Amino acid sequence: METKLQQGQQKNLILFIVCHLWEIILLEEVSNISSGPKLFQLYVHKDRSISDNLIDRSRRSGFDAMCLTVDTLVAGNREKDHRTGFTTPPKLTLQSLMSFAMRPGWVFNYLTGKKFELSNVKKKTDKGTNISKSVIEYINEQYDPAMGWKDAEYCAKKWNGPFALKGVMSVEDAKKAIDIGCTAIMVSNHGGRQLDGSRSPFDQIKAISDAVGDKLEIILDGGVRRGTHVLKALAAGAKACSFGKMFLFSLAAGGQEGVEHLLENMRDEINRNMVLMGCKNLKELNSSKLIYRK
Amino acid sequence: METKLQQGQQKNLILFIVCHLWEIILLEEVSNISSGPKLFQLYVHKDRSISDNLIDRSRRSGFDAMCLTVDTLVAGNREKDHRTGFTTPPKLTLQSLMSFAMRPGWVFNYLTGKKFELSNVKKKTDKGTNISKSVIEYINEQYDPAMGWKDAEYCAKKWNGPFALKGVMSVEDAKKAIDIGCTAIMVSNHGGRQLDGSRSPFDQIKAISDAVGDKLEIILDGGVRRGTHVLKALAAGAKACSFGKMFLFSLAAGGQEGVEHLLENMRDEINRNMVLMGCKNLKELNSSKLIYRK
Amino acid sequence: METKLQQGQQKNLILFIVCHLWEIILLEEVSNISSGPKLFQLYVHKDRSISDNLIDRSRRSGFDAMCLTVDTLVAGNREKDHRTGFTTPPKLTLQSLMSFAMRPGWVFNYLTGKKFELSNVKKKTDKGTNISKSVIEYINEQYDPAMGWKDAEYCAKKWNGPFALKGVMSVEDAKKAIDIGCTAIMVSNHGGRQLDGSRSPFDQIKAISDAVGDKLEIILDGGVRRGTHVLKALAAGAKACSFGKMFLFSLAAGGQEGVEHLLENMRDEINRNMVLMGCKNLKELNSSKLIYRK
Amino acid sequence: METKLQQGQQKNLILFIVCHLWEIILLEEVSNISSGPKLFQLYVHKDRSISDNLIDRSRRSGFDAMCLTVDTLVAGNREKDHRTGFTTPPKLTLQSLMSFAMRPGWVFNYLTGKKFELSNVKKKTDKGTNISKSVIEYINEQYDPAMGWKDAEYCAKKWNGPFALKGVMSVEDAKKAIDIGCTAIMVSNHGGRQLDGSRSPFDQIKAISDAVGDKLEIILDGGVRRGTHVLKALAAGAKACSFGKMFLFSLAAGGQEGVEHLLENMRDEINRNMVLMGCKNLKELNSSKLIYRK
Question: Smallest Cβ distance to D73: which of A269, A275, A288?
C-alpha cells in the first residue's frame, strides 16, 4: 500500500510521511524507493527503548523530519468501526464479508499483497505483531497515556532536527511546543476520530498563527479535500497541509493511478484558484483574503 | 424498576436519587438495598404535612441530601403523550396495546412486577394511589403552584443539611437560592418537557458558575448522554451531572445489565476523553477548554 | 363566518376586530351580537368619503377603537394563491373543485351561508360588490397607494379616540405614529403575505418597545400560535397580541366549537407557562426573561 | 439567441450587454437592432491586438460603455458540466441526447438557428471558431491569466469613456479601480461558477459602497432573481443590478415572450415592493431599510 502511495508521491515531490503503525516495509527500505523529503511519525511507547530505537533508525535511514503524535495517547472510541466490525488488520464478519464480496479487487490485493504486520517494532514487542491483535489494542497496550511535555522534549532533543508536534489545538500548547524545542506543529484532531466535540483544526489556525506564526511552522492536518481548502489554510497562516483519508480513498478507488490523479487535481486546483483569487504569490495569500462567517 | 436501577448504581458508587412520585418501594427500604449516597427528590404539596412527613422520614432513613423540585409546580402540557396516550401508570388504548404487543418482554415485567402505586404518600392522601389516577392529575391536584421562596426556605431549614433546588435556570434565582440556605442547585428544565422554548440547562451553566460558582454546587440536569457531555458541563462550571432518561432507556432496553453497561460506558468515555483533552485532573478541566459557537 | 367567530369571542371577552373587507354583516349589526370590546380595521380609499363614512358609522355603532391598515396599500403578489387559484370570493377551478370535493362540510357552509359581499361599502361603490371581483382587485382599485402620514393623521383626528396604526415595523415609523396622534401601533407584516423578505414582527418588538414603549401601546400581529408566543411578545414589550390565521384555521376545522377550543387552549397555555416561568404577574414578565439566539 | 434577448430588452429600455464570447452577430450589427444603451463585455487576450480591435470596433459601433472582465482569467473547474457533459457549443453524449429528446423545441431552435461561432474574433484567431472547440478551451488558450492592473488601465484609457471592471469583490480592489480610471465596478463572482468558496456579491456591496460609493458606480452581478433582490442591492449601495442566468432561463423556457414576461415581472415587483416598503423614491431606499442576519 505504502509502495503505491510512494510512487504517486515521487512524481509530485511532496512530503512523504511514514507512520510506524501503518507501514508494511521497514524504515530502512523507504529511502530506496522515495527520493523526496521524508517525515517519520512517532508515538511514545510505554517501553521508551522502542521510541529510542525508532528515532535512531529514522536518522540513519535519511529521514528529514520527525513528528511526535500527541492526539492518540489512547485510542478514540470509533463507534462506526464497532458497527461495521472494522479492525486493522481486518477481521472477517458476515457484514465485512458482504462488503468484501462487493469489491473483489480490494480483497484480491489484500490476499495477494504483503502480510500486514508491524514490521518496525516486531523485534521489540510481540504485541500487535500477531495477526489477531488489532491496532486499537496495540495503541492502548503500548502507548503511554501519561506521556507529558518532558517526554516530548526528550524526543525533540534526541532527534535534534526539524521536529513537529502533531495534535496541538491551542495557542497555549503551541507556545509550550516552542519552549521544548519544536520547529513545527501539526494542528490536528486526528481526522475527527478521537475526541467527540473537538474543534476542526482549520478553526484554530488563525489564532495560533497570530500568536506564534513567526516562531514555528504550522501544518494543517485534517479536512483537506480540495485545492481551495489548502488556499484557505495558507491564508489563515498555515505553511503546509497534510492529508491521510484523501490519499487512502484515492488509493482504494484507483491504486497508484488514483493517487497520481489526486495529486494532479490538487495542483491544478491550487494553481487555478490562486489566479482567480488574484494572488500572484504566497505572500499575497494572507488573512485579508478570508472572511469568516459570523 | 428502582430495584434494578439500584443494583446498577451500587456497583458504580454513584449518587442514587429517589423521587417520591416514581418509587414503588418505601423510603425506609432504600437504605437496605443501597449503601451509596442517597438524595431524596421532594415536591411541595398543598397539604404541607405531606412534605413535612417526607422530610422527616428521609432523615430517619439515612438519606444524605434533599432536593426540592421547582420546575414542576404545574404539569407541562406533554403533547406527545396526548398523541400516544401515554400516562403513568399506563392506560390501555389500541395504540399502546399495539406498542406493547411489539415488546412482549416489557409487558411481562409490568404484569408480573410490583404494582405501581405511590407508596410513600398513600397514608396521607387517596389521590394518585388509585390505579386510575395518572401522575399528571396527581401533580396538578396535589402540588402547590403558588409555592414561593418562603416555602423553599422552610424546607431547607427543616432539612438542615445538603439541600439543592432543582429547576433553577438563571443567575438571579441562583443568588436567591444561596440566600435561603441552599448548598446546591440543579440547573434543569425538567428534560425539556415542561416549558416550551425554555433554554437548554447547559447554556446557562457558565453564567451561573461565573456568578455564584464559589458559593454553591451546580449540578447539570438534562441532555447528558455521553462522557463528553459530562466533561463539557464540568468545564463550564458544574460540579456534577444528573440524568434520568438515560437511565430509563438503558433499563427498558437491557434491565440491570443495561444500566451497568451504561455506567461503564460513561466511566470509559470520561476517562478516555480526559486523556485526549490533555487534562490530568479536574482543575485543568476549566472553561479555557471550551469554545462556544458564535 | 364572523358570527361564529363572535360567539367564540363572546365567551372569552377578547377584543373583536372587524375588517370592512371581510365582514358579511353591517357595522351597525355588530354591537347587537357582541358586547365585548370592538375595533374597526380601516383602509384608506382613493375616494375619501368612503373612509369618512366608515369612521362615522363605527363611532355611531359603538366601536371602541379604530385601526388604520398601512401594510396593504397595494396587494402583495401572493404566488401560492396564483398556483392554487385561490381568490376571495372563491372562483371554481379544477383544482379548487377537487379541494372542495374532499371537504364537503366546507362547501355546504359556503353554499348555504350568507352571500359574500362587501356589505359596508356597497352603497358607496359598485367595485368589489360584484361576486366576480376578487378582493385583490378591490384592494388595487380602491385603496390609495400614495397614502401618507397626512392621511393617517386625518383619520386619527377624525376618530379622536383609541387609534392604532397597523403595519408599523420600525422605530422611526413608531415615533411618527406618536407625532400624528396614535395611541397604539400594531407591529405587523400582514402575516408575511405582502412583502418578500420583510422581518418577522416579533423581531422588531424589543427595539420599538425600548424606544417608545412608554408612549404608545404595542400590539404584536403575526406568527402567534401558542401561549408561549404571547408570553414572549409581552416579555419583549408588547401589550397585546392579535391573530388572524389562527382564528380562521380553527373556524375552518371546527366551526364555533373550534374557535372556543382555541381560546381555551390559549388561556391554559398562558396560565400554565406563567407559573412555569416563575412569573406571578405581568410586571415580572419583562425582557430579563428573554435570551435571544446569537 | 441574442436577437430575442434584444427584442425583449428593446421594449423595456434596459442596458444591453454584449459579451464577445456569446454573440453570434457582429458587433457592428447590434446598433441596427437595439436603440437602447449598449455595453461591451471585454476579456483581455494574450494577443493584445484582439482586445484593441474589439475596443475600436465597439466605439465605432456606438457602444455606450465598456466592461472588462477580471473574474475569468482562467476557466473555473465547472464540475457539474463535467458530469452532464455540457460544453459550449454542445457536444452530443448519451446523457445530453436524452436531455435533448425530452425538450424537442430546444433542439429544433439549435438545429435551425444561426450557427454558433465566435463571429467577432474569427478574423483574428482560428481558435474557438471551430465548432469542436469549447468555450472553456478558448478561455484557457486565449485569455491572459497574467493580466494585471496595468492591462486594465491600458483598456480604460484606450476606451476613454464609461468603463467598468467586472469581478471586483473587495474594497481594496475597488479603490485600485478608481485609481486606474474606472467609472464603475461590477461586483461579481461570475455566477458562483469560477471560484469555490467565494462570497456572494451581495455580501460585499455594503462595505464597498461605504468605502467608495461616492467615487464610482457599483453594479451588483449575480443572484438576482426577484424585484426584492434588486431593492436589497440598491438599499445596500448598488446603483444597478445585472443578470445573466435569469435572462437565459426565461429565454430557454419561453423565447422572446419569456424574456418580456421576466422584465414585466421585475418591473411589477420593484414597483409594488417600493410601495410596501414605504419608499417614495430611490433616496429613501438606503441602508436604514436593511437589517442583516447575525
Answer: A275
* C-beta atoms of D197 and A232 within 8 A: yes
Closest to D43 (Cα-Cα) out of D17, D64, D67: D67
Within chain B, strands assigned E span 16-19, 38-42, 65-69, 163-168, 184-188, 217-221, 240-242
The pLDDT, as a whole number, for residue A129 is 41
Residues A90-98 have a mean pLDDT of 61
- CA A24/CA A2 separation, integer angstroms: 7
- Which residues 6+ apart lie within 8 Å of C200 measured at CB? C189, C192, C222, C223
CA distance A92 to A85: 8
Q: Where is mean pLDDT largest: B84-98, C119-133, D280-294?
A: D280-294
Residues of chain B positioned with their CB less than 8 A from the CB of C291:
199
Of the two residues B36 and B9, the one the predictor is more confident about is B36
Query: Which has the higher per-residue pLDDT, B132 or D21?
Result: D21
Check: CB of residue C199 under 8 Å from CB of residue C171: no
- With 70 as the cut, is the pLDDT of residue A63 above it? yes
Q: Which of D228, D275, D288 sits opposite C196 (nearest CB)?
A: D228
Give catalytic residue positions of C: 190
Average pLDDT value for residue range D261-287: 91
CB within 8 Å: D226 and C71: no
pLDDT at D143: 75
Best mutation target, D77, D189, D294, to test chain A (most A CBs within 10 A)? D77
Catalytic one among D20, D190, D229, D261? D190
A265: closest chain D residue by CA = D77
In chain C (294 residues long), the average pLDDT of successive 10-residue segments reads 48 58 66 79 86 91 90 75 66 61 56 58 51 64 79 94 94 95 95 89 96 97 94 96 89 89 91 90 93 83
- Indicate the SS3 state at residue B255: helix
Which among D272, D278, D288 has the least Cβ separation from residue C77? D272
Distance from CA of D198 to the nearest CA of C (A): 24
pLDDT in tens, B223-262: 999 999 999 999 999 999 998 888 889 988 998 899 889 9
From the list A268, A276, A291, the residue facing D195 with the nearest CB is: A276
The larger pLDDT score, comparing residue B266 to residue A120, is at B266
- Rounded to a whole number of angstroms, the distance from the CA of D227 to the nearest CA of chain C is 9
Length of chain A equals 294
Query: What is the pTM for the complete model shown?
Result: 0.83
| Chain C residues whose C-beta sits inside 8 Å of any chain B C-beta | 226, 228, 232, 268-269, 272-273, 275-278, 288, 291, 294
Nearest-CA distance from A286 to chain D in Å?
14
Contacts of B268 (CB under 8 A, 6+ apart): A77, B227
State the pLDDT at residue D82: 74
Q: Report the distance separating Cα D9 and Cα D34, nearest Å.
A: 8
The residue type at D234: L
Residue C170: the pLDDT is 93
Q: What is the DSSP string of C47-103?
A: SHHHHHHHHHHHHHTT--EEEEE-S-SS----HHHHHHT--SSPPP-HHHHHHHHH-
Give the CA angle between residues C192, C194, C200 to the nearest 5°. Answer: 30
Q: Which chains touch C (3 or more CB pairs under 8 A)?
A: B, D
* B268-282 mean pLDDT: 91
User: Can you give the length of chain C in residues?
Assistant: 294
Contact B196 C278 (CB under 8 A): no
Residue D194: which of D84, D71, D86, D89 has the closest Cα? D71
Interface contacts (A, D; CB < 8 Å): 28
At residue D38, does pLDDT exceed 80? yes
Q: How far apart are CA C59 and CA C54, in angstroms?
A: 9
Coil, helix or strand at residue C251: helix
